[in-house]
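Lab notebook, bench 4. Still working through the backlog of constructs that have no structural model yet. Next entry is a single chain of 175 residues. Request: give me the structure tokens for it.
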Amino acid sequence: AALAKRLVGGLSKVSSPSVRFLSSGRRADNAIAATRSEGEGGYGVDLLAKIDTSDHKRFMLINSYFSNGFKVAGLQLAGSVCISPQASFLWNTRSLAEITAESLSFIPLLEPSIDIVVIGCGRRVEQLDPSVRRFLDKERISLEVQTSPNACATFNFLNQESRSVLALLLPLEQS
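Model written out:
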């Protein structure tokens, strides 16, 4: 306990990137987390404080799909979705015909830059407007067009491989 108090006292003077805040609002680093595991103040083990988040990457994950939407990172989203490695959004596109080079003009603006776009067409793979492929080729972005279930699996695989991928998914039942 004395060691923990000394570390906490000294920590307030430290301004290094290794300093993090716990959910309780208190500062912690890995040394303090180790002392906290002994039960400082009755807290018990704080597993989140022990994780070195400096290199830890969190990935968006498509958990499942259903007839009118998708479950992404535990959140059920109805309708079409746009999913990057860092975030997911509802996407105001109801059919493949609405996907044009103009509607995808936001992709080159994303940071970090996207290398692969996976488009899920719903139940069946259909032909995209040729201008879409030309636009993405010009931007040096690869394109995969698949059924939505296959696009979900492809996105998850590429994302776990730390590839810079964007999924544009239409639900199985399009309205």
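Notes after review: The chain is about 25% helix and 20% strand. The CA atoms of residues 85 and 157 lie 11 Å apart. Flag for follow-up if needed.
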